[in-house]
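Pilot study result, target chain (151 residues):
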Amino acid sequence: MLTLKRTNSDNTDFQQLVLMLNKDLEKRNGVVNDFFVQFNKIDEIKNVIIIYENHQAVGCGAMKKYDDNTMEIKRMYVPLGNRGKGIATKVLQELEIWAKELGYKKCILETGNKMSEAISLYEKNSFKIISNYGQYVNITDSICFEKTIEY
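Predicted structure:
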C-alpha cells in the first residue's frame, strides 16, 4: 500500500532519495552535471512529498517558491526498482494540490534533455514545454515545463 507524507528537506528519507538521484544524474549528465548541481541544493525546502510503500520511501519530489504566482518543482525521483507503479505521478499531483492550497497559479520545472522518463512524465501530466527560464536560459541541455493550476 502506498502512503504519502508532506514534509520538508530535513526529512532523512528525502535526503537519502536525493543522494540516489544525484548519483543517477552524475552518470547520465556527465561533465555538464557540475553546472546543475548549484541549483539543486535541498537545504531549506519547505515543501517535500515522499511516497512510502510498506514504510519504505519509494519516491519524492519538492517545490519551492519561484515568484509570487509560481512554484518550481524540484528533486523528483523514484528509484529504478520502483518505477512503473505511478509513484512519480502521485508525487507530482500532490505537489500541484499543495501549490494550489498555498494559492499559487502555476508550477514550472526544468529537466535534462537526456531524461526521457521525466519528459514523458511531465507531458503525460499536462505540463507544456516553455522557453527556458532563469538560470536555464541558453542551456541547450535543459528543457523547461509549465502547468497552470486549475481553480
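One observation from the pilot: The CA atoms of residues 88 and 107 lie 16 Å apart. A full batch analysis is planned for the follow-on phase.
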